[in-house]
Amino acid sequence: MPRKKPFSVKQKKKQLQDKRERKRGLQDGLRSSSNSRSGSRERREEQTDTSDGESVTHHIRRLNQQPSQGLGPRGYDPNRYRLHFERDSREEVERRRKAAREQVLQPISAELLELDIREVYQPGSVLDFPRRPPWNYEMSKEQLMSQEERSFQEYLGKIHGAYTSEKLSHFEHNLETWRQLWRVLEMSDIVLLVTDIRHPVVNFPPALYEYVTGELGLALVLVLNKVDLAPPALVVAWKHYFHQHFPQLHIVLFTSFPRDPCASHDPSSVLKRTRRRGRGWTRALGPEQLLRACEAITAGKVDLSSWREKIARDMAGATWGGGSGEEEEEEDVFRYVREIFFS
Length: 343
What we know:
Layout (H helix, E strand, L loop, with lengths): L8 H16 L11 H13 L11 E4 L19 E4 L3 H13 L7 H4 L3 H5 L19 H22 L12 H13 L2 E7 L9 H10 L3 E7 L6 H14 L3 E6 L32 H12 L6 H11 L11 H16 L1
């Protein structure tokens, strides 16, 4: 009988580690590409990719792999909406690391930190978000999918033809994600765009504003979230800025942690957080303003009395949760909207 090949403890440990990685679906790039399990994970991800066709760029990094055994019930694919970003070459990563170690950062003035929003998004350029091609209900599903795929590949081709990878930031290459945006916008009556008051321009693409208010003719509500983390003067300045440059916006200030107005005047307290117990909507700033914005948009055509009654009940003392944390604030806005519109 042939002798078994020796199997060391180190090899066994590596085998178990590979098994754990397969279960967790770890992101690409966490291990060296020279590692054999890294290559096998990439091949496995290629097999579970759900994009409709070949991308213009073949070096795509697919994140958030979900373990699955084929398609689920009713054809559900848990990896359908994975993030697809262009992969940086190994040479580019090493160049950035070397530059980061050698370059000494120097403080710059506040004036040099200011950027015009048109410099960031460059409206009218190929960097705008992809638009859904014209369609009608007489088209078959296959025709619609094929047309959207061609249009999206043309969109990617224009971007990568005009800019090198070094000049581009990461953006979504998964068509399924953009399809969801197209369909949700077309089915909506009012669109809420939630931004962080500390960097609102970063989350506010002018092309999306023009598309929603112009081409679709929908009302767009800009929610400036976490206003408790900024001085009152800055909040007022941002509100004035958006009103001046985007007149069709409805602007709502929102926070789940309103502060003492006197304390907000102290610049040193901007990034400090006061822990509160038993948070509730009685302390939140924004639900009443959001209701008034929707009342102005609907102009009495929609009965919003149930919404107002809910706000009154919450102000009467109904509370929820006791946790705290900055990462929860953005979810607070969406949770509240879901409760109102889908209850």
